[in-house]
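User: Before I run my own analysis I want an independent prediction to cross-check against. Here's the chain; please return only the structure tokens and, at the end, one sentence I can use as a sanity check.
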Amino acid sequence: MSTSRTTNPLTVTAPEGLPFIDFEREFDHPVEKVFRAHQDPDLFRQWIGAGSDDLELDQFSFTTGGRYRFVQKGEDGIDYAFNGVYHVVRENEFAIQTFEFEGFPDVVSIESLTFERLDDGRTRLRGHAVYPSMEARDGMVGSGMETGMNAGYTKLDTILEEQA
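Assistant: Structure tokens:
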């Protein structure tokens, strides 16, 4: 296992004409650690939203039937809130959740996360998000989502490395 910060890229794909966004990211850490960083509220708070110091985790239960809501203050000083429900969570394997940015109510995506065990104690995280329309999908793509996800996963790498 690597003892230095990973440089694994985030790949985000928005297929032409389909209301989907897919992403993939590898981590130089075992599935159990990557999953726990999604499950443990203290760890989750440290990397979601790139680990912003002003993130408020109002509600968080990464279990089947659980819910989440977090609020982050943007660089513009405005609060941005996100919420959802965890429909299925299988430890170290899989999760299905909804995702809603409260600034665009009634636009809810359904997302799946797959935690794949790789050789040498590594993990591949795959996500698939389905949007209610192409307009909603394109709005998410144009929102800077990829930049935010990349910053969050880079922060997650740092957190996982510190736990090694």
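Sanity check: Strands lie at 10-13, 20-27, 56-60, 67-73, 79-90, 94-101, 108-118, 122-130.
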